[in-house]
Design a protein that fits this description.
three-stranded antiparallel β-sheet; about 15% strand; globular; two-stranded antiparallel ribbon; 7 strands; C8orf32 fold
């Protein structure tokens, strides 16, 4: 979840003390009508419609979310992060790294975040997201 400005307002976030946070990007899992948002205070998992309604401000133009929708298998086989985005220009960690190993080889995180350039998956706004994630028959 991001946008061209890399400023997406998301409500009900633990990082905001249960209030809103403006993320440069945010990652969630959506499936079976549920959302797994690692920072929400709404529950884990929570219903998709409820999550949308409670998480995003209506008509906040500069902070509107856009979503890169990728199936799980493609995401797992494509994503790579060497955690370089978690270090300053001198290589010093900005925050402690997670306990688990880095993912894949190299770094393509920003290709996922940049919704203006073609990459894997499909990009949706709030209006088109429900149609894009609906089960296909």
């Amino acid at each position: 979840i991001s946008n061209a400005r890399r400023q997406v307002a998301v409500r009900r976030q633990a990082a905001g003390g249960g209030g809103a946070v403006v993320w440069d990007y945010h990652v969630v899992l959506i499936g079976g009508g549920k959302v797994w948002d690692p920072d929400t205070t709404l529950g884990f998992p929570v219903g998709f419609d409820f999550w949308i309604q409670e998480s995003f401000f209506p008509l906040v133009r500069d902070h509107e979310p856009r979503f890169r929708v990728i199936d799980a298998a493609t995401y797992r086989s494509t994503f790579a992060s060497d955690r370089s985005h978690m270090r300053d220009k001198k290589g010093k960690p900005l925050k402690p790294a997670p306990d688990w190993p880095t993912i894949g080889e190299g770094m393509n995180l920003m290709s996922f975040v940049d919704l203006e350039k073609p990459f894997i998956g499909e990009v949706a706004d709030l209006e088109s997201l429900p149609r894009l994630i609906a089960p296909r028959s």
